[in-house]
């Protein structure tokens, strides 16, 4: 039937330099960086700043959804929070998801 073999054309059609072959890959990486990586880094920095500024009296929400009031800042990684009258628990600072209300720093006068 149709037994004619199809032969490839001459090798001159591939043209272009090696750098031009990597341009789409570089563009994909740049778009991924601008749309995914950079906003995530900003969000992490904002969270770290929020957590580092926690003080006694701040009302917070943990990642588990517990609304609590900071009663003591123990150390750089731990908080003591009051979730009900007389019920205090220790939580890791990084588990604070949101600060509902901030307390004003005490005046020095």
From TrEMBL:
Keywords: Cell membrane, Membrane, Protein transport, Translocation, Transmembrane, Transmembrane helix, Transport. Pfam families: YajC (PF02699). It is found in: Cell membrane. One of its GO terms (cellular component) is plasma membrane. It comes from the Bacteria. The chain crosses the membrane at residues 18-37. GO terms for biological process: protein transport. It is a single-pass membrane protein. Belongs to the YajC family. The SecYEG-SecDF-YajC-YidC holo-translocon (HTL) protein secretase/insertase is a supercomplex required for protein secretion, insertion of proteins into membranes, and assembly of membrane protein complexes. While the SecYEG complex is essential for assembly of a number of proteins and complexes, the SecDF-YajC-YidC subcomplex facilitates these functions. Part of the SecDF-YidC-YajC translocase complex. The SecDF-YidC-YajC translocase forms a supercomplex with SecYEG, called the holo-translocon (HTL). This is Sec translocon accessory complex subunit YajC. It comes from Aliiruegeria lutimaris.
């Amino acid at each position: 039937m149709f037994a004619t073999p199809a032969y490839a054309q001459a090798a001159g059609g591939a043209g272009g330099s090696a750098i031009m072959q990597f341009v789409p890959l570089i563009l994909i990486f740049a778009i991924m960086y601008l749309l995914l990586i950079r906003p995530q880094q900003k969000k992490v920095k904002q969270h770290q700043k929020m957590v580092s500024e926690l003080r006694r009296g701040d009302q917070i929400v943990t990642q588990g959804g517990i609304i609590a009031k900071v009663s003591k800042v123990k150390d750089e990684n731990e908080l003591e929070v009051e979730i009900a009258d007389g019920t205090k628990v220790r939580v890791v600072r990084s588990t604070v998801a949101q600060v509902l209300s901030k307390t004003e720093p005490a005046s020095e006068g």
